[in-house]
């Protein structure tokens, strides 16, 4: 939020989970524009890129193969991957343990066996994509 002699400027970043349809995003942005107009304000979206379809990414498929997964999955959480992918950067989010219902909880935990599997996965990715 920035206050100047011309008015008040509010800026932000909107990251939506891949499971949210672009139409929902557009509808929310239109509604915000209408609310701003009703009070004499202006609303603009400076940069918008459609979501990334990970099912079409060869990179994502290769990473899934290394992880022992059949196909990439979209999860209903936000990460920086959604920002990068909209810029055309292929992204995969991977980590040990169960994310949904486990992360940011009082008894959050990851099994040592899952950590060891992650070590092997990261090693395989480095060997495949970086060396």
Using brief descriptors, characterize the structure shown.
elongated; 2 domains; single chain; mainly alpha; two-stranded antiparallel sheet; 131 residues; DNA polymerase, domain 1
Short overview:
With 131 residues, this protein is mainly alpha-helical. The protein has four helices and two strands.
The level of helicity is 40-55%
Widest beta sheet: strand line-up: 1-2
Under CATH, the topology of the largest domain can be stated as DNA polymerase, domain 1
> How many separate structural domains?
2
Question: Can you give a write-up of this model?
Answer:
The chain is mainly alpha-helical and 131 residues long. It has 2 domains: 37 residues, no CATH class; 77 residues, DNA polymerase, domain 1 (Orthogonal Bundle), CATH 1.10.150. The protein is built from 4 helices and 2 strands, in the order E-E-H-H-H-H. It has a two-stranded antiparallel sheet. The termini are far apart. 5% of the residues are buried. The mean pLDDT is 80.
Topology:
Elements lengths: L1 E3 L2 E3 L12 H17 L19 H10 L12 H7 L25 H19 L1
């Amino acid at each position: 939020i920035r206050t100047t002699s011309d008015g008040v400027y509010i800026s932000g970043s909107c990251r939506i989970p891949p499971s949210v349809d672009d139409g929902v995003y557009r509808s929310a942005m239109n509604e915000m524009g209408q609310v701003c107009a009703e009070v004499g304000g202006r609303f603009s979206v400076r940069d918008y890129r459609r979501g990334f379809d990970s099912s079409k990414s060869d990179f994502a498929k290769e990473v899934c193969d290394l992880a022992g997964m059949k196909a990439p999955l979209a999860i209903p959480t936000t990460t920086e991957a959604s920002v990068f992918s909209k810029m055309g950067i292929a992204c995969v989010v991977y980590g040990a343990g169960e994310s949904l219902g486990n992360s940011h909880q009082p008894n959050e935990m990851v099994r040592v066996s899952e950590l060891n599997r992650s070590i092997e996965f990261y090693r395989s990715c480095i060997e495949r994509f970086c060396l």
